[in-house]
Amino acid sequence: MTDANKKFLVGVYDDDDVALAAVNKIKSAGVKIYEVYSPFAIHGMDIAIGHPRTRIGIAAFCFGLTGFLCAITLTTWTMGIDWPMVIGGKDPLSFPNYIPIMFELTVLFTAFGMTITFFLSNGLGPTVEPLLFDPRCTDNKFVMAIDLSKNKMSEAEIASLVKASGAEEVSVKQV
Amino acid sequence: MGAHHHEVVSVEEQFEFTAESKRNLLIGMGIGAALVLIGAYMLSQGGGHGHEAHGAAGHAAEHAHDHAEHAYHWSQRIISNLWVNSVYFAGISVIGLFFLAYNNLAQAGWSAVFRRIPEAMPAFLPVPAIIILVLAVGFGDKLFHWMHEGIMDPNSPHYDAIIAGKKGFLNKPFYFIRLVLYFGLWYGLWKVLRNLSLQEDEIGGTENYEKAIKFGTAFLLVFGVTSSTSAWDFVMAIDTHWFSTMFGWYTLASWHVAGLATMTLTIVMLKERGYLKAVNESHLHDLGKFCFAFSIFWTYVWFAQFLLIYYANLPEEAIYYRERFSGYGGIFKAPFFINLFLNFVTPFLVLMTRDSKRTPLILKIACWSILVGHYFDFYTNIMPGTVGEHAGFGPVEFGFILLFACAFIWSVSTQLTKGNLIPRNHPMLEESLHHDVA
Predict the structure, then answer these.
(1) What pLDDT shows up at residue A175?
(2) How far is A110 from chain B (nearest CA, A)?
(3) If you compute the radius of gyration of chain B from its CA atoms, what whole number of angstroms results?
(4) What DSSP element (H or E) covers A7?
(5) What angle do CA A127, A130, A132 make, to 5 degrees?
(6) How far is B282 from chain A (nearest CA, A)?
(7) What's the structural domain count of chain A?
(8) Cβ contact (<8 Å) for B3 and A21?
(9) Contacts with B352 from chain A: Cβ below 8 Å
(10) Which domain holds residue A145?
(11) CA–CA dist B151, B145 (Å, integer)
């Protein structure tokens, strides 16, 4: 996801409310925040950081629609056109028979599609080293990362801002 | 959550049932009554015309019913209409209590701010209760095959062995007792919850809330049984030969989503009139999710019932869909598809996105679609069995819908005036005021 040798300023917070307030404070000082890592979802954090609204719903809809169309093609082609089969006295092209398949393939494509989307958008994969600024963000700490190359302010200025906003530790990490 | 920027508005609101609203509702009821009278006059004049069409169209369906043996009278159409509307509005009313009860049991916080709306709905229950009881006692044989004279008497020419086999459940004394029990228990438990809630406004504390959880849970136990049995008694017993093990669920799903749509619509309309300022976009979003999800749930149950019958194709089961799809000259085909379209396709597509669930206008469109759709749901389930080929959609149908809807709105509005529009001392109110689903 990130280019090699990028410099990040990392602040570690002990409390989710403090972290959320810190995001608002630091942002109003004109600093761009790269991301905040937390062991659980913090209400309103994505809005505070200023992430654009997710398009994950559109992706899900497209995957679902693909599955739905695949199911229509599969059922009508195999059972109705290529090798018409009469089962239980029903017409080979009987729509109600195929609804369970349409439902299942819609769900299957959406589930797989969203899983793949999740891995891609988070830069996760079998051989990929995940971007982890501080492993404690998977346990009890809230970790804020600021991309120094994307900010005009100096490293020292941002560090003092982060410190003042309630961070327990401030460090610089090369990724 | 403290860092959130919320503008929490006042929770002191008194709903005013204005003279203008009362006048409009009275006009609506007047138009409804006039339509019913005009329609009844037309039916009474055109009484003979149904008989010619009789032989040709209805025969496939008839052998499960003996309507052909039973002389049709135009008043059956009036009775059936009263029955459809009573069942539909009784369901919507009781769902208000159902919603309160499961929110209490789950100790849900988000819904506290608009609790007074579902709380107001069950007050209408006595109206359908009286109509249903009077019709069942006085005109039961016009609605129910199993109430026909001599149907369970082996010496009678009308004897029907299959129906006689259901005598243990479908007999008049037990049936009437059940009807009284349903409405008595539903209305009684609502009264308890309602009084606890209104009293809570004055005294505060958590004691009433704790009690409301207990009585609500008692209601859920009662409703777990009575929602199914009432669905059999109100609807399924009309087609006495036929049965479906999905039917209780199916009717509950139908009532539930119609009740949720009623709540959502009421809340949106109250907001438009300047009330419920504390209801924010997140509440609307969640109500929209409820309507969306339970529309799909209804469709799921509908389809589960349909597919098994369609696939197995057993004559005694398939007759139910045969009658609705192509029986009686195909007059039920339109409501059959309107039902699916308004209850599944519209809410599914219209309410899918996040923004639509937060837009009052789109919520209103979806709710109206659900409400009209579920009227047709009950229409399609009841009419073929009661009036068959004599069914139709004319002044009588419109008139009764208008009468019932205006009376229901009147009842809800009256209830809303009886307390603060927001339960000011509800223990979960603070959480609800800050409800935010981002």
Answers:
(1) 78
(2) 15
(3) 23
(4) strand A7-13
(5) 160
(6) 13
(7) 2
(8) yes
(9) 61
(10) 5-51+131-172
(11) 8
Would you state the structure tokens that stand for residue B399, as one six-digit string?
Answer: 């008139």
Neighbouring residues of B166: CB distance < 8 A, sequence distance ≥ 6: B146, B240
By percentage, how much of chain B surpasses pLDDT 70?
93
CATH code (residue A163)? 3.30.70.260
Domain residue limits, chain B: 25-44+76-428
Q: Find the mean pLDDT for residues B414-425.
A: 94
Tell whether A125 is covered by a domain: no
Interface membership of A86 toward B (CB under 8 Å): no
Phi, psi (deg, nearest 5) at residue B78 = -65, -45
Q: What is the pLDDT of residues B163-204, one digit of tens each?
A: 999 999 999 999 999 999 999 999 999 999 999 999 999 998
Nearest neighbour of A47 by CB, restricted to B2, B353, B438:
B438
CB B321 within 8 A of CB B312: no
Distance CA B296, CA B305 (A): 14
Shortest CA distance to B212 belongs to which of B115, B137, B281, B287?
A: B115
Question: A107 and A65 in one domain?
Answer: yes
| B143: its two tokens | 């609605």
B434, closest residue in chain A (CA to CA)? A43
- Of the candidates B307, B354, B436, the beta carbon closest to that of A43 is on B436
Contact list, B303 vs chain A (CB under 8 Å) = 99
CB-based contact B384:B143 (threshold 8 Å): no
